[in-house]
């Protein structure tokens, strides 16, 4: 059975004080009546700025939500070295982090991420036992040129070389729908995610949708048979709104 992963990506938002406030409010909005089987089938994940990782690792366990974890937003491919501003997989593992986003479109767009560096980051994450969330998706220009499928297939072919698909999450994030309010139609997201799944050796990999996910469209998105969760940007910053997304069922 494919696991549902509802993930928030705070990007470069929230100081430590703001993060503490979020988690002082968030648990009260979560459903507390879910059967244990449902909890086992669903992972709640919030990927936060590096400055929040260690402090939240001391706060979140006290909440008592067994399926709630904190994740990182990037990881370097080397265990150490002269890489100013980067963070290594052993550094994340040392403080108990288990998940990390790799290849987010903003990393690709603004910081020169390539398919080669994405592949190396995936390998580094998995070599230390981290579960990476690999982000793939097309631009508006590529979609308008009917290149969605060919582009995503090329990303997968390059990114997944020598990658263990038994320890992997994939997020389909159409770039044109990220932060624009222009959500990809749920049926279209379902179609593309089905195509992504058809290219995988392990068809049980969790595949999320990411792109202007909000409390008012989560039910329709999660009703799609190929979609195993969401990667949420702006809507994950509000404790009540993100809890509504987590509580979609």
UniProtKB/TrEMBL annotation:
Its EC number is 5.3.1.1. It is found in: Cytoplasm. Keywords: Cytoplasm, Gluconeogenesis, Glycolysis, Isomerase. The active site is at residues 104, 173. GO terms for biological process: gluconeogenesis; glyceraldehyde-3-phosphate biosynthetic process; glycerol catabolic process; glycolytic process. It is an enzyme of class 5 (isomerase). CDD domains: TIM (cd00311). NCBIfam families: tim. Involved in the gluconeogenesis. Catalyzes stereospecifically the conversion of dihydroxyacetone phosphate (DHAP) to D-glyceraldehyde-3-phosphate (G3P). This is Triosephosphate isomerase. It comes from Pseudanabaena catenata USMAC16. The gene is tpiA.
């Amino acid at each position: 059975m494919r696991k549902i992963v509802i993930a928030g990506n705070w990007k470069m938002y929230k100081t430590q004080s703001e993060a503490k406030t979020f988690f002082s409010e968030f648990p009260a909005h979560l459903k507390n009546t879910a059967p244990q089987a449902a909890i086992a089938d669903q992972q709640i994940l919030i990927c936060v700025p590096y400055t929040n990782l260690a402090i939240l690792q001391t706060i979140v366990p006290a909440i008592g939500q067994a399926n709630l974890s904190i994740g990182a937003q990037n990881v370097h491919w080397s265990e150490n070295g002269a890489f100013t501003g980067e963070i290594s997989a052993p550094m994340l593992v040392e403080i108990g982090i288990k998940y990390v986003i790799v290849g987010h479109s903003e990393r690709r767009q603004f910081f020169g991420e390539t398919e080669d560096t994405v592949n190396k980051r995936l390998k580094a994450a998995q070599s230390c036992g981290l579960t990476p969330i690999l982000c793939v998706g097309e631009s508006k220009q590529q979609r308008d040129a009917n290149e969605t499928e060919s582009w995503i297939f090329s990303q997968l072919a390059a990114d997944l070389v020598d990658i263990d698909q038994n320890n992997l999450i994939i997020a389909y994030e159409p770039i044109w729908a990220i932060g624009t309010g222009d959500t990809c139609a749920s049926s279209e997201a379902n179609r593309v995610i089905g195509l992504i799944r058809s290219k995988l050796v392990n068809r049980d990999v969790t595949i999320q949708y990411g792109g202007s996910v909000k409390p008012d469209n989560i039910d329709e998105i999660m009703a799609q048979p190929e979609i195993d969760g969401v990667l949420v940007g702006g809507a994950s910053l509000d404790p009540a709104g993100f809890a509504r997304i987590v509580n979609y069922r």
